[in-house]
């Protein structure tokens, strides 16, 4: 044994570079440069001088301390922590054990892109552009989907059919990792556990697409950014045998990063609907009652990696999901004479829908870094594809009040084969002139294709015959070529950013049945302005302006009818024109030690407002979008965060806005105006035995439309959580919609008819979730 030890010592002396050199220790403590508080989970990596591969790395513990061991030599020491500037201590000579004492990290510069007010215990922060949501810190999101997160997000409204509105506008540009993707067509398929952040940008600058009246929602998926190997598993089980489970893992070194995640979701839904419609001239009233049951199974994968070499980074990001959904709904209808109350028409319509979804999103990204960390060059190539195939089997029971076999006297079938393709090529460059000013520019090409083939069949003489008056095949393609530039300048007190985006749009659509083509081509300029004035360390005032566009989607343009309910049909309008929007915002942000408040005053003017219009034809209600003259919205938004005590914190928002709609081009009855408001409040309590309690309340007041009003919606969610295994494990119990109040209701009226409706889904759901991170 002594001979072996002697040989090792001789080899270590002669060949230290082979790894036999004596190990020495480097340690220290990382603290916040302003508060002097220790910083947890900061990444610390040791590099040989002028080399890119780390020799050793670690992260700080709960006291902010770190320990590294490495052979003797000269090293560069680097520190990383989200929200703080990266730090480098160059050319450290490690001849013996060394203690660095306290190492301070500085918060990122509070410029136009990162004026942040936040609370450590609250999963939300605001900046000059909008709101950043960290969903993993919100208990009510456990076991849910992206739509559940958005329902609890300030400024955002989620309708019963899953459509999204920002500050009263349904025109939103939803991105995945900053990219256009066809996967955003079904946000209920993206699990909450796969989402890292959501950025709500109400008034984006020229860097972003000018698309969408309300603004941008950017969904950032988890990818793994910490050095080492990390991962986690999650399981949620709920009432009606609902199940959501998933796992993720990533490994990161100084040379590469790879990550992957999988989620499986089995979800059940039930619901009821009621409609009452009166046609004045006919003196008749239609009553409808419906119920539906739905089961869906979804698989979601996200995966990717990064390779770091020199000053270059090559990344791949991928998402794949597939799902199967079955819905069984029945609608009972009866038509009554208003004078005699006699039943003039009575029937039941049963519909079994089966839907298969498949989608994939791929992106290849190249990024070049420079000695000046503010100088950047990035190229992105992405492609996404989504295929949705749906079948419908419809049974009709005329002159009957029950769906009994002996009452069956009509059958129909339908199929929809829908494909969506999105390709994006984009390059962005940032060039700083000095530490106070920079220039940004970029080019982007977006190619989209929507192909919808709908076939409808009637049972005649014992065989199903295609109805050419209803079947249709619709193709929509658009090309958007964009270029932008932004100039930014900052000083101790005042920051400003001005930019312009140019977009050339080419649209082609074809309705195969009639060979009807719709071709459009137009060029638009979209200026933007962002300004920030720092009154002092706690107070800032901001102003933003942008001109935007909301192009009609392929779904809105497609004239094919949705005949799930044959007396209430929804269809598109191929003659729609884009909306053009002017949007302005004036805001104030104040940040105290344990609280913050953001106040925004906003105004929006829309030319060619898109709204849904209801009309009666042959006793059938048709709802389709149309262009109105103008719409205006102005309002006030308050977002507050506060740690009231060591055991109680709250965050909340209130949005109040007045909306005026002018549809006099369609008729005087399409002119309307009204006041609306919505509020969200989250309250977190730290209870004994490491238990956390959270209450989330939402209220949305009645909101006007061109022909009527949507009624108020409100609900309260409650969640309990307890941590285990030194916070690595977590168990939570959540009750959604505690008082069972969530529903979607409203009314439409004109000079010829009035209509009231109520849709109520099962919303009181109990969920038990378990999570473990490593």
How is the secondary structure organized here?
Layout: H1 2-14, E1 23-32, E2 43-48, E3 54-59, E4 65-71, E5 73-80, E6 87-94, E7 98-105, E8 117-118, E9 124-126, E10 130-133, H2 146-151, E11 156-158, E12 164-166, E13 172-176, E14 195-201, E15 215-221, E16 228-238, E17 242-252, E18 256-279, E19 284-309, E20 312-337, E21 343-369, E22 376-398, E23 410-434, E24 437-460, E25 463-466, E26 472-490, E27 494-511, E28 516-534, E29 539-550, H3 554-557, E30 568-570, E31 579-591, E32 595-607, E33 610-617, E34 620-627, E35 630-643, E36 648-662, E37 671-687, E38 691-700, E39 703-704, E40 708-710, E41 713-724, E42 729-736, E43 744-749, E44 753-761, E45 765-773
Parallel strand pairs: 1-7, 13-15, 30-34
Antiparallel strand pairs: 1-4, 2-3, 2-5, 5-6, 8-9, 9-10, 10-14, 11-12, 14-15, 16-17, 16-45, 17-18, 18-19, 18-44, 19-20, 20-21, 21-22, 22-23, 23-24, 24-25, 24-26, 26-27, 27-28, 28-29, 29-31, 31-32, 32-35, 33-34, 35-36, 36-37, 37-38, 38-41, 39-40, 40-43, 41-42, 42-45, 43-44
Q: How large, in whole angstroms, is the Cα Rg?
A: 29 Å
The CATH homologous superfamily name of the largest domain equals TonB-dependent receptor, beta-barrel domain
Largest sheet: 22 strands, antiparallel, barrel
Low-confidence stretches: 1-21, 109-122
CATH architecture of the largest domain: Beta Barrel
Number of domains: 2
Dominant shape: globular
Keywords: Cell outer membrane, Membrane, Receptor, Signal
Subcellular location: Cell outer membrane
Main location: membrane
Protein name: TonB-dependent receptor domain-containing protein
């Amino acid at each position: 044994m002594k001979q072996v030890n002697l040989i090792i010592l001789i080899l270590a002396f002669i060949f230290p570079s082979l790894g036999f050199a004596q190990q020495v220790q480097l340690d220290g403590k990382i603290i916040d440069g302003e508060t002097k508080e220790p910083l947890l989970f900061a990444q610390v990596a040791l590099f040989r001088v002028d080399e890119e591969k780390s020799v050793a790395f670690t992260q700080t513990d709960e006291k902010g301390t770190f320990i590294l061991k490495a052979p003797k030599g000269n090293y560069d020491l680097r520190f990383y922590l989200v929200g703080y500037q990266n730090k480098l201590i160059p050319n450290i000579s490690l001849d013996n054990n060394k203690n660095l004492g306290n190492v301070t990290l500085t918060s990122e510069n509070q410029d136009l892109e990162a004026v942040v007010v936040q609370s450590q215990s609250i999963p939300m922060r605001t900046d000059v552009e909008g709101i950043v949501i960290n969903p993993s810190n919100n208990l009510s999101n456990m076991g849910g989907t992206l739509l559940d997160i958005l329902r609890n997000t300030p400024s955002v409204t989620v309708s019963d059919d899953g459509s999204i509105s920002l500050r009263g506008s349904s025109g939103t540009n939803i991105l995945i990792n900053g990219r256009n993707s066809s996967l955003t067509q079904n946000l209920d398929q993206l699990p909450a556990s796969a989402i890292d952040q959501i950025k709500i940008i109400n008034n984006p600058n020229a860097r972003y697409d000018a698309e969408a009246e309300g603004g941008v929602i950017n969904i950032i998926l988890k990818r793994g950014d910490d050095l080492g190997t990390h991962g986690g598993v999650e399981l949620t089980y709920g009432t009606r045998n609902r199940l959501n489970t998933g796992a993720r893992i990533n490994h990161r070194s100084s040379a590469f990063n790879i990550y992957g995640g999988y989620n499986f979701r089995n979800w059940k839904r039930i619901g009821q609907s009621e409609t009452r419609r009166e046609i004045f001239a006919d003196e008749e009233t239609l009553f409808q009652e419906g119920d539906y049951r739905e089961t869906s199974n979804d698989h979601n994968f996200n995966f990717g990696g990064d390779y770091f070499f020199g000053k270059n980074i090559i990344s791949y990001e991928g998402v794949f999901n597939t799902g199967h959904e079955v819905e069984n709904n029945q609608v009972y209808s009866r038509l009554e004479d208003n004078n005699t109350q006699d039943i003039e028409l009575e029937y039941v319509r049963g519909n079994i829908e089966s839907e298969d979804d498949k989608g994939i999103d791929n992106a290849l990204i190249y990024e070049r870094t420079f000695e000046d960390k503010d100088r950047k060059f990035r190229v992105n190539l992405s492609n996404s594809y989504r295929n949705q195939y749906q079948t419908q089997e419809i049974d009709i029971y005329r002159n009957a009040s029950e769906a009994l076999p002996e009452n069956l006297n009509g059958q129909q079938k339908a199929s929809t084969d829908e494909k969506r393709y999105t390709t994006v090529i984009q390059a962005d460059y940032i060039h700083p002139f000095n530490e106070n000013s920079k220039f940004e520019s970029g080019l982007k090409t977006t190619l989209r294709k929507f192909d919808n083939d709908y076939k409808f069949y009637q049972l005649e003489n014992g065989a199903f015959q295609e109805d050419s008056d209803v079947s249709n095949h619709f193709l929509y393609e658009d090309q958007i070529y964009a270029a932008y530039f932004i100039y930014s300048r900052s000083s101790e007190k005042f920051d400003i950013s001005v930019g312009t985006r140019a977009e050339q749009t080419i649209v082609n659509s074809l309705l195969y049945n009639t060979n009807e083509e719709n071709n459009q081509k137009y060029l638009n300029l979209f200026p933007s302005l962002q300004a920030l004035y720092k009154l002092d360390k706690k107070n800032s005032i901001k102003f933003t302006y942008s001109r935007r566009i909301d192009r009609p989607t392929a779904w809105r343009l497609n004239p094919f009818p949705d005949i799930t309910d044959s007396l209430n049909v929804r269809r598109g309008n191929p003659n729609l024109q884009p909306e053009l929007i002017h949007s302005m915002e004036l805001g104030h942000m104040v940040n105290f030690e344990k609280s913050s408040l953001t106040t925004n005053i906003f105004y929006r003017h829309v030319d060619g407002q898109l709204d849904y219009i209801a009309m009666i034809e042959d006793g059938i209600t048709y709802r389709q979008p149309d262009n109105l003259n103008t719409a205006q919205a102005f309002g006030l938004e308050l977002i507050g965060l506060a740690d009231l005590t060591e055991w109680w914190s709250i965050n909340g928002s209130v949005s109040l806005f007045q909306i005026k709609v002018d549809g006099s081009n369609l008729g005087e009855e399409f002119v309307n105006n009204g006041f609306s408001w919505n509020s969200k409040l989250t309250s977190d309590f730290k209870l004994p035995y490491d238990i956390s309690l959270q209450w989330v309340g939402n209220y949305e007041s009645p909101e006007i439309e061109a022909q009527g009003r949507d009624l108020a919606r409100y609900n309260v969610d409650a969640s309990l959580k307890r941590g285990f295994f030194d916070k690595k494990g977590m168990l939570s119990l959540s009750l959604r919609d505690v008082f069972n109040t969530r529903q979607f209701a409203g009314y439409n009226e004109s000079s010829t008819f009035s209509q009231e409706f109520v849709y109520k889904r099962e919303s009181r759901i109990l969920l038990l979730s378990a999570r473990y991170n490593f």
